[in-house]
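Quick question, first post here. What does this chain look like in 3D?
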Amino acid sequence: MTSRERVMASVNHQNPDCLPMDLGSNVSAGISGMAYGKLKKYLGINHGHNRIYDVVQQVAQPEIEVLDIIGADVLDVGRVFNTADSDWYDVTLSDGTEAQWPSWFRPIHNPDGSYDFFDSEGTKIARMPNGGMCFDQCCFPYVEDYPETFKDLDKAMGKVIWSALVHSPWDHQNEKYFWEDLREKCLVLRNSTDRALMITCGCNFFEWGTFLRRMENFLMDIYEDPDKVIELNEELLQRHLAMLEKTCYYLDGIVDIVRFGDDLGMNNNMFMSLDKYREIFKPFHTKINEYVHTHSSMKTFLHSCGAIFPVIGDLIDAGFDILNPVQTSAAGMDPAKLKEEYGKHITFWGGGCNTRRILNLSTPKEVYEYSRKMIDIFFQDGGFVFNQEHNILGDCPPENLMAMYKAVEDARK
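> Answer (accepted):
Ran it through. Tokens below.
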């Protein structure tokens, strides 16, 4: 099988020729610039670039040479933009790693070593402390209260870090011929690789509420003012469907998977009751899935962290084909139980190695053995794409990374 055939067979719950694997298909399945720089040095690669294409999380865009070495099967189509050297400039990350930031991203470097990013109106959008590994959100447009109407919602969303500092290809979305250009570039990419292609479309509902209102306020809103939350979701749905209309029109038959995001879980439980999810968010998740499945052949991918076992059945019912990052370290997220209960109905994209305590803090031997165990549990009758749990962080030793990929390599034999 080609990489694309391998991934899609597993997503369709068929047995591929071998284990499909991902690094960098999206900004929640990737590698930090710090860890990527160390990995390249360990591999003896002293050419190319360490380009941070998601500046919020400081996530690097893995180069094809590295993906070839580890045997990855998926690409993020964001790589089709910002391909010229002039699109980037050199920076040094807080641990001394050499990297590059997009030319449009010009935060202020403060005397204390921290960074601040201001928009064109002077609003502080983001901050990274001295020694930090990512930027934190500073502006919550509705933190005091909701507006009387949502006529200025687009402007408010533009003040949020995840929109103001958006990663490629969406940093080009305001250009006149963006969609035509995106289609043409993605066609070239598809014809030049046999890897599966993914595009991130966001389409968050719960998360946008937390971005606008701040977490503690929005969690109270869900219980104290659910009608207002639903009203906000209706406004968001109009915007999400407008983007999905263009995504399906221009990219159907070219891109294989569309990635959504909505973190519904904490370490020990969900952010809300199952009843509240069903009342307030499930109808909207169902509508975006229905639109994609009706208007394209693309599969839908949901990134949702945390202890979400209670809601997985509803996510399947809402139409999601793929679940990521499969945070097995969270309460109730036992790998064997996940596979037994839901393995025939949804594809697990992740869960291959714990990034919080195993991948970064264990020995290479322990990483290898842990990853093999996860592969043995999840990779039965398809329905699994190997990926670590969320992004590889900056403190991860390259020896451990290669031990994880050695586990994948051996499982493929």
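The radius of gyration is 20 Å.
The mean pLDDT is 97.
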